[in-house]
Amino acid sequence: MTGMSSSTNEAWMARARREVPPRKLEKQLAMVHAACGVFGREGYARASVDAIATAAGVSTRTLYNHFPGGKAQLFQTVVTWTAHEVRDAQLARIRTLLDPARLPTADTLERDLVAVAQAFTDLISEYPNHFALVRHIHSEADHVPGEVLDAWQQAGPAPVAAALAAALTALADGGLLDLHGDAALATGHFTALSSASILLRSHYGVLPLPRDETDRLLRGGVAAFLRAYRRTGEAAAADGA
């Protein structure tokens, strides 16, 4: 299960089923599934190839035959795969909730941004294995190979940030936001003030927050974002002058 370069997991699987013998593909998937569990529990530094091989029901030699890069290659494969899943879910939510063809009004803008933040937050419980891996990435960044960190960023966080920046830009073009010339910075602020705060407070889903506390944090974060980025009547009038 090497060289995952397809834009979606479905595309990769379709190609793998054509090119890889079924028995070999079944073994590779079993090893990746086992690696996801071991990495999620132990983290990158503490996980061992022996433990992953045992969990997958194969010998260490067999594991290296399929993944010559050992632990680093397995971790990159696992985190890229799960990042693709979460990325696709996030992009679908952005397209649904911030469709540039159906912009919110000034009165519904805050409601719609809260809905986006809530939709992102809901993914924590929907994809617990992925967020367990991300928690370990952040806590062990000095131990995780740089190429693995880059692969994770390109598989998930980077395209999601780009899509969210494009959605916020559409809101700015529609006269609802003023991004002050830096859509990427505004996107980072939106994420940090909303869903990222839930990730940190819940320790990436390990200790889920009560729903009312989640709602309070999300609404407060979006309100703070809008205090900085909502286009005011004065600014809109100046643009039209």
Number of helices, where a helix is a run of at least 4 consecutive DSSP H or I residues:
13
Helical amount = over 70%
Oligomeric form: single chain
Rg on CA atoms, Å: 21 Å
Domain tally: 1
* CATH H-level homologous superfamily name: Tetracycline Repressor, domain 2
Distance between the termini: 58 Å
Q: Briefly, what CATH class?
A: Mainly Alpha
Mind telling me which CATH architecture this is? Orthogonal Bundle
Main β sheet profile: none
Looking at the structure, the CATH topology is: Tetracycline Repressor, domain 2
H-E order: HHHHHHHHHHHHH
Number of strands: 0
* Class by alpha and beta content: mainly alpha
Would you give an account of this structure?
With 241 residues, this protein is mostly helical. The protein has one domain (9-232): Tetracycline Repressor, domain 2 (Orthogonal Bundle), CATH 1.10.357. It is 75% helix and 0% strand. The protein has 13 helices and no strands. The protein has helices at residues 9-19, 22-46, 49-56, 60-66, 70-97, 109-126, 128-139, 146-155, 157-173, 183-193, 195-201, 211-229, 233-240. It is elongated and about 65 Å long. It starts with 8 loop residues before the first helix and ends with a helix.
Walk me through the topology.
Elements: H1 9-19, H2 22-46, H3 49-56, H4 60-66, H5 70-97, H6 109-126, H7 128-139, H8 146-155, H9 157-173, H10 183-193, H11 195-201, H12 211-229, H13 233-240
